[in-house]
Amino acid sequence: MVRLIYTSTITDKFEVSDIARILKIAREKNKAIDVTGLLSFNRRFFLQCLEGERDQVNQIYHKIATDPRHKIPVIIDYQEITHREFDVWSMGYLQDVESLRELFYKHTKSINFDPYKMNGDTAKALLIDIRDEIKKAEQA
Predict the structure, then answer these.
(1) Model confidence over 87-126: pLDDT tens digits?
(2) CA distances for 139 relative to 43, 52, 96, 136, angstroms
(3) Buried b (16+ CB within 10 A) or exposed e, 44-70
C-alpha cells in the first residue's frame, strides 16, 4: 500500500458546483477499488491524500494531474505504508470553515495558506488534524 499527498491549484474551468461532483464520483469509484483518503479545498488549492494499492493510487493521481480543473499538480509526499490514516472514508471532506483556517495556520504559521510550501510531514499532520475535526463534527 502507498500514501500519496498532492496539491494543485484550481483553474478557470473549475466551478463551485464541481466540488460536489468531484466528491460524489471519488467516493463511488474509490470505494469500488479500496482507495481511501481525504480532500481539503480552500477555494484556491486542493490538498488531498490518497491511500491504497500503488496501481490504483497512481491511476487516480494521473487522472487528477490531467484534469483541466487542476493546474500545477505537485506530489508533496509518496510513501509505502503499513496502515491507513484515512480508512474511514472513500473520500473525506471538510469545507472551508473557521476551524479549517485555524488548522491551516497551526501547520503553516501563515494566514495565507499555500500547500506548495508544505513538506510531507506537515501536510500529513494537517490532514490528520482535518480528519479528527471531521470526526468531531460527525459526532456532534
Answers:
(1) 876 666 656 567 777 888 888 888 778 899 999 999 999 9
(2) 26, 26, 19, 5
(3) ebbbbbbbbeeebbeebbeebeebebb
Question: How does residue 40 score in pLDDT terms, banded at 50, 70 and 90?
Answer: confident
Report the candidate in 79, 49, 84 with the shortest Cα–Cα distance to residue 64.
Answer: 49
Residue 137: is its pLDDT beyond 80? no
Domain boundaries, the chain: 2-139
The listed CATH number (3.30.70.100, 3.90.1150.10, 3.40.50.1580, 3.40.1190.20) that belongs to domain 2-139: 3.30.70.100
Asked if residue 70 lies in contact with residue 46, where contact means CB atoms within 8 angstroms, the answer is yes
CA distances from 84 to 2, 14, 20, 52 (A): 9, 30, 24, 8
What's the mean per-residue pLDDT of the chain? 88
pTM of the entire predicted model: 0.90
Q: In the Cβ-directed half-sphere of 136, how many Cα atoms lie within 13 Å?
A: 9
